Structure to design on (294 residues):
């Protein structure tokens, strides 16, 4: 037990050194400019002027007055960042140097330290096909280190995925507007798609929601390696498939692309900024690209 605990502490320290350095050197400034201005308290409504952000349009007042109006905000002194972290079975998959869980953990740590540099609170929602754990937002290094430790060693009760659950929980649990990063491979089961779209629309209307998709290239395409046994990490279902058959590889790729189109459409409709990162890719470039786009 003691060895396991010291191993966890070493992992926490290793992640802290890497991600805190990235945060201090690269992300804090980008984070501030990209998200600080989104931590706003509603003040008033006024008529739309050329150059105003169309995302601030108040559609109810616009419909009543028949002239476009926008919401005017006052910047709050501090922000709250919420990390919505997918801990379902599929996070343990990866064919590159790192599994998806490793990348999600590092990105979450970078974001948390970036928020800390701005004296913001950080909270966390772990989810699978249910809400697994809620860590209320707080400030401070020790709080962030606790979140990183949980990211490393947390063992979920569920294996499946329901992306609607953390969004619904966020809407109900966090009353003030926050910036919420949804970190997942975004493999949305058919039965959760409608609930995901609905909960995303509600959550993004109340909070500044940002999607970060972390996936492995083998999620998207099968290699030609003959007959292999594959297992669904979330259902435990196993089957043998012949990857040498082009039709099998094409069906697999088509299913991934269809899921990808659904997610992109849902995020775009919800006006949610998002970026994708593979397990063999430099997530630093992807995050900077995301921040600069805002």
């Amino acid at each position: 037990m003691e060895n396991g605990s010291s191993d966890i502490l070493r992992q926490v320290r290793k992640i802290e050194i890497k991600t805190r350095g990235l945060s201090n050197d690269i992300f804090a400034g980008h984070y501030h400019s990209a998200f600080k201005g989104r931590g706003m308290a509603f003040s008033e409504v006024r008529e739309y002027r050329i150059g105003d952000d169309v995302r601030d349009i108040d559609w109810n007042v616009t419909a009543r007055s028949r002239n476009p109006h926008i919401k005017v905000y006052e910047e709050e002194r501090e922000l709250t960042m919420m990390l919505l972290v997918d801990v379902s079975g599929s996070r343990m998959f990866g064919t590159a140097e790192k599994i998806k869980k490793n990348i999600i953990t590092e990105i979450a740590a970078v974001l948390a330290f970036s928020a800390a540099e701005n004296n913001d609170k950080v909270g966390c929602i772990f989810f699978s096909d249910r809400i697994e754990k809620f860590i209320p937002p707080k400030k401070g290094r020790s709080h962030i280190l606790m979140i990183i430790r949980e990211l490393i060693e947390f063992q979920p009760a569920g294996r499946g995925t329901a992306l609607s659950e953390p969004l619904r929980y966020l809407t109900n649990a966090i009353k003030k507007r926050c910036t919420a990063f949804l970190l997942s491979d975004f493999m949305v089961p058919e039965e959760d798609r409608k609930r995901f779209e609905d909960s995303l629309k509600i959550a993004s209307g109340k909070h500044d929601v940002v999607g970060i998709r972390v996936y492995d290239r083998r999620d998207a395409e099968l290699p030609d390696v003959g007959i292999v046994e594959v297992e669904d990490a979330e259902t435990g279902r196993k089957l043998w498939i012949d990857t040498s058959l082009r039709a099998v590889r094409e069906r697999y790729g088509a299913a991934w692309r269809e899921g990808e189109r659904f997610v992109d459409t849902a995020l775009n409709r919800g006006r949610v900024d998002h970026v994708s990162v593979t397990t063999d890719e430099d997530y630093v470039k992807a995050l900077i690209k995301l921040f600069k786009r805002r």
In short: The radius of gyration is 20 Å.
